[in-house]
Specification:
By secondary structure, the chain is of the alpha+beta class. Helices cover 25% and strands 22% of the residues.
């Protein structure tokens, strides 16, 4: 059995500190958006599509074979969701809980490593205070990145955030999502106030922060909206080729999808370029972006989480402050990071 060189314990895990609920979708009108909202339901459709996929050369070069293919309809049964014809606005509602305790692993079988890591994490809290990360999280709450496809083509987007706690000074914020870029993390008084609350929770100055978040999106009467899509393992053999997510009959978005948007704050990866069309990516150990099929933090370049964490957690200073931010952001994300004794 090979000896571990990094000193990282075989059992090491961190609980996530940004805990999102599922997001529920409602229909309303822009003028009555605070008073009259109706849960959106899924509708099943049976559609007759045409053959449009790439064909083999033997088919596309033979008119008879091509016509025979086209004659066979592409029959599909799918879920869809849309506003009613007397509704022009989508409402998304979810909650976010920010927890403290990043300095304490939820599982660790090496007392010496745990002590070293706790010292490193507490030092980060004293010097950085999670201010940079919190500013980025707060910006993503304000710009409504979590609407995903529902954000595209909207005439107006209003975000309302309310603090839910026993504190006397409960905060409330209203943002115009279009005031904030999806590629940059700008500062504003309201965003910094919200970020301050998030940082307090992450640093343990308060045990937790609970936020209620509502986003109102002016789309147009009867326009289609986009809940999360369920993963269909037996696609092609099941009854429906597209199954959308719902909870108790209400169209919804997965908590994982909302959380992914909130932690899309990594602009520190080597290939980041504001003009590239990619922009920030979600905080991941290897910088994985599945829809692009690429890992932007390749271990060969020594910029992945494990390479940086193995040094940082042992007390070694990283060369850049942004590397520290990235490592701590992954720990806020949570996960299982132990190293097998076989490595």
């Amino acid at each position: 059995m090979a000896k571990k060189e990094t000193g990282v314990p075989s059992v090491l895990a961190f609980e996530k500190k940004l805990v999102t609920s599922d997001g529920y979708l409602y229909g309303t009108t822009w003028e009555e958006r605070e008073k009259n909202v109706v849960p959106l339901n899924l509708v099943e459709k049976s559609v007759r599509g045409t053959i449009s996929n790439r064909l083999e050369n033997a088919v596309k070069n033979d008119s008879a074979k091509l016509n025979a293919k086209v004659e066979n309809p592409n029959l599909q049964r799918v879920d869809s969701c849309a506003l009613a014809m007397d509704q022009d606005t989508l409402k998304l509602k979810f909650s976010l809980k920010v927890l403290s305790g990043v300095e304490y692993p939820s599982a660790c079988n090496d007392a010496e490593f745990r002590k070293k890591y706790e010292g490193v994490a507490k030092r980060y809290m004293e010097t950085a205070g999670f201010q940079e990360l919190s500013r980025r999280y707060a910006t993503n709450l304000a710009n409504a990145r979590y609407l995903w496809r529902n954000r595209i083509g909207a005439e107006k987007i209003e975000v309302r955030i309310k603090e839910v706690s026993s504190e006397d000074d409960k905060g409330q914020w209203i943002f115009d999502a279009y005031d904030f870029s999806l590629k940059e993390f700008e500062e504003s008084e309201a965003v910094m106030e919200l970020a301050g609350k998030i940082a307090e929770a992450l640093c343990g100055k308060r045990s937790y922060l609970l936020l209620d978040i509502e986003a109102y999106v002016l789309l147009g009467e009867g326009q289609e909206v986009y809940p999360s899509e369920e993963l269909v393992f037996d696609k092609g053999r099941g009854e429906k080729s597209k199954i959308l997510y719902q909870v108790d009959g209400i169209a919804a978005m997965h908590s994982q999808k909302l959380g992914n948007a909130i932690r899309t704050i990594d602009t520190w990866y080597p290939e980041f370029d504001e003009d590239s069309g990619i922009g920030p990516i979600a905080v991941e150990p290897y910088g994985a972006v599945t829809n692009l099929g690429k890992a932007y933090r390749n271990p060969k370049e020594k910029v992945d989480f494990y390479t940086l964490f193995d040094r940082y957690a042992q007390g070694e200073a990283l060369s850049k402050e942004e590397e520290e931010h990235y490592v701590m952001a992954v720990l806020v994300r949570g996960g299982v990071f132990g190293q097998s004794s076989k490595e």
